[in-house]
Specification:
This protein is α/β, with parallel strands linked by helices. Strands 3-2-4-1-5-6 form a 6-stranded mixed β-sheet.
Length: 199
């Protein structure tokens, strides 16, 4: 199985530096829409047998742009962005000042954040969600090529689950409209590329 992930285009929440988890259903802004459209011109949707997307507006719109209306898009709630609980919508810089132990050296929230956002999702819960989705894809489409349009933290965990035993710290957040490809054959997972930008 070959599986390609695309991170959604920019939103105003991204632009503002606020945390944008599953509780914030922002739409693409003009910059995000143009980036997706420019990237889609260099993207061949015909190579994919099936397309999945997060049900969130920013991901679904990105999926529609990249597939140019030529593919059915299956929405799956397991592809929702990470639920940051009380941190959703907060400025990441504010959280870094208040809770430095919850921010990694690259400026992203780490697993400690749940100490301060008790209603948020844990990293292990996110990995279980990703594993459930990936296991189903491998069973249903062992010899197919799959496109998945989703979110930054979720794609990091997908990569971590496939390549780094669930250690999300091993992967950076991809750029908006960045692509990552993995090949899964006979129980072996291989990273083909990560954070490729087409525009």
């Amino acid at each position: 199985m070959e599986i390609v992930f695309i991170r959604h285009g920019q939103t105003n929440v991204n632009k503002s530096g606020k945390i944008q988890g599953s509780n914030i259903d922002a739409e693409l802004n003009e910059v995000g829409r143009k980036l997706a459209e420019d990237s889609a011109k260099k993207f061949d949707e015909s190579q994919f047998d099936v397309v999945y997307a997060s049900p969130m507006k920013r991901a679904f719109e990105t999926a529609r742009i990249f597939t140019k209306g030529k593919k059915d898009i299956i929405l799956d709630k397991r592809l929702l962005e990470f639920d940051y609980g009380e941190w959703d919508g907060a400025l990441l810089t504010d959280m870094a000042q208040k809770y430095p132990d919850a921010i990694d050296p690259w400026g992203k929230a780490n697993g400690n954040y749940v100490k301060y956002a008790p209603n948020g999702e844990s990293m292990s819960e996110l990995e279980a969600r990703c594993a459930s989705f990936l296991d189903e894809m491998i069973k249903k489409y062992p010899d197919k090529k799959i496109l998945v349009v989703a979110h930054g933290t979720l794609i990091r965990m997908m990569a971590a689950h496939l390549i780094a035993n669930g250690n999300i710290d091993a992967f950076q957040t991809m750029e908006n409209c960045g692509l990552a490809e993995f090949s899964i054959r006979q129980g072996i997972n291989r990273l083909i590329y990560y954070n490729r930008v087409l525009a």
